[in-house]
Amino acid sequence: MLSTNAIVETNVSLHPWGDVNKNQQMTSPQRQLTLVDRWNYLLGLAGKERKDVSKYPGISSSSITNWLYRDQAFTHRAVNLLQDWASEQGVEGLTYEWINLGEGAPPFKGKARVVAPAVREPTGVSWLSGEGEAPAAVGDSVRFFYLPDFSKENTRFIDIPSILLGDSTAKLMSSGIRVYTNPDDIMRGEVEKGDLVFVDTDVKDTDVDGLYVCKLGRIPMVRRVTNLGDRAVRLTGNQYSVELAEAKLDSLQIGGRVVGRIGRTSF
Length: 267
What we know:
The chain is 20% helix and 25% strand. It is built from seven helices and 13 strands. The protein has helices at residues 35-46, 50-53, 61-70, 76-88, 96-101, 162-165, 169-172; strands at 91-92, 108-109, 126-127, 136-138, 141-145, 157-161, 177-181, 196-200, 210-216, 219-227, 232-237, 240-245, 252-262. The radius of gyration is 21 Å and the shape is globular.
């Protein structure tokens, strides 16, 4: 059960970048275009550069490199993020099939979606504000979205039966709640490896000691964070302790405070 507490063939006009008719099979010349070609086309439509995309929540320069050159494909989660980014730039119609395979219609220039600027903390700790969808009831379950830029899942969300959430359902339906799978056993006894933790992304600082999902040197983790004052914090776990102060705080990114957990075997 959930535990929450203080931590808690007609004449076809072929576009060089895809099938603008949206219903014809691609011919062989389309296959000559590479993933990088289509990526550059997307950037050109948006009038942006790679560095601009890497600033979007959930996307980094290293992840772009992995998608383009190591994996040579964008994951479904990556495409979802790119679709959101592209929409804000006034580019619509981006699909998984087009960007990865060159199949289907290419994206097109539309009307930019106006969004509010992300709120960042004016402190040494880098804060991810948790952009994304809020928890929502789906039948007898609640849909929770994974914490962007931290989670490694190939899907954006998970549906958890409400019966498993019990009396904590209302609390966990807060708009800032995201979920994250604990990747290690450093916090065993409090949060076990593989547990799904509920993360309050509305927490704006680490003034209150507690468990947080954080990223240190680009490595995501769950750790207890203690504020030592004078712009210094300590990250602790079982046989683990790291103190960060001043400039070293730049390497720490906070995803949110852990407000509950549920064992993965429960569902």
